[in-house]
């Protein structure tokens, strides 16, 4: 069983335009809504890849009601912590042959009771999960060690998909795998990584700090892996991108899904890249098909590197 836990769900609006004109009235050619945010994307992607999944997150207001309804219709096992604050709404603006624009509402502050409940429930489920994925940003008033409190004295395999000080707090508790993207890795250390050597050296510092495996993605340039004193670069398949939102979450879900089946981390990342590529081919994030992900994963190239 995979556990996906986090406190930054979102109700997602996706608008498609032929051309987006800043400062003018823009009428969308298509509009869709869905439950999203990193924690939900991980859970939904893992379930659609064929795994048994449990989800722990918080919801509130009308947007929270909509999220609960959709997740229930999917048959996904969820533990909801109800909040006074409405769940945030985020908007993705897509245009034909143009860049993707994301309008992100920050996660609202929440109460100490909600955070304590989240920590307690996640610990309980993590003890019986094959792998636990902690992902997403924390509420602005949350202590930076909130995720670390879950890991402390919890003998479980954790996959971490967040950045900055919260990630650094978790390293002493030996996470099995950490998965920032390149920009998040730079933000975590407050540096600019201009070469592959600098990238690998910074990843290795996360290994030295406690992470068994480090996986860093950077869009079309692919994914780097460090662990077991080795390093790899994996190059993604060629696809036509419809919506890139949720690719990192699908990568995390794909990795977790394969780690449930075997312990080969490089092969798990390869499958995760197939899931991420399939996500980019679809309009709504994280709604995947295992067979298509397998096909795309077979097109991933693996290059072993030297430090």
TrEMBL record:
One of its GO terms (biological process) is carbohydrate metabolic process. This is Hexose kinase, 1-phosphofructokinase family. Residues 24-280 form the Carbohydrate kinase PfkB domain. PANTHER family: 1-PHOSPHOFRUCTOKINASE-RELATED, ATP-DEPENDENT 6-PHOSPHOFRUCTOKINASE ISOZYME 2. The keyword Nucleotide-binding applies. Belongs to the carbohydrate kinase PfkB family. Pfam families: PfkB (PF00294). GO terms for molecular function: ATP binding; kinase activity; phosphotransferase activity, alcohol group as acceptor. Coiled coil: none annotated. It comes from Planctomicrobium piriforme. Keywords: ATP-binding, Kinase, Nucleotide-binding, Transferase. InterPro entries: PfkB_dom (IPR011611), Ribokinase-like (IPR029056), Tagatose/fructose_Pkinase (IPR017583). The keyword Ligase does not apply.
């Amino acid at each position: 069983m995979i556990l996906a836990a986090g406190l930054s769900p979102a109700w997602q609006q996706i608008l498609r335009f032929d051309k987006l004109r800043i400062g003018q009235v823009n009428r969308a050619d298509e509009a869709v809504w869905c439950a999203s945010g990193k924690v939900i994307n991980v859970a939904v992607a893992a379930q659609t890849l064929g795994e048994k999944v449990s989800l722990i997150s918080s919801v509130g207001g009308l947007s929270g009601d909509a999220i609960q309804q959709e997740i229930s219709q999917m048959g996904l096992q969820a533990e909801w912590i109800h909040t006074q604050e409405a769940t945030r709404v985020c908007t993705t603006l897509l245009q034909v042959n143009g860049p993707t624009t994301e309008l992100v509402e920050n996660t609202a502050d929440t109460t100490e009771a909600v955070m304590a409940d989240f920590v307690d429930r996640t610990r309980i489920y993590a003890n019986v999960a094959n792998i636990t994925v902690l992902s997403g940003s924390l509420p602005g008033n949350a202590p930076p060690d909130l995720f670390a409190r879950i890991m402390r004295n919890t003998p479980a395999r954790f996959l971490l998909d967040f950045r900055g000080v919260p990630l650094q707090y978790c390293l002493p508790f030996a996470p099995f795998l950490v998965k920032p993207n390149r920009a998040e890795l730079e933000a975590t250390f407050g540096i600019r990584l201009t070469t592959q050597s600098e990238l690998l050296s910074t990843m290795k510092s996360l290994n030295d700090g406690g992470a068994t495996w480090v996986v860093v993605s950077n869009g079309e340039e692919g994914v780097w892996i460090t662990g077991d004193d080795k390093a790899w670069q994996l190059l993604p398949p060629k696809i036509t991108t419809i919506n890139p939102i949720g690719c990192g979450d699908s990568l995390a879900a794909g990795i977790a899904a394969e780690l449930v089946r075997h312990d080969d981390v490089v092969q798990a990342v390869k499958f995760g890249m197939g899931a991420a590529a399939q996500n980019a081919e679809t309009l709504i994030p994280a709604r995947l098909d295992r067979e298509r992900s397998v096909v795309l994963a077979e097109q991933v190239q693996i290059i072993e590197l030297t430090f």
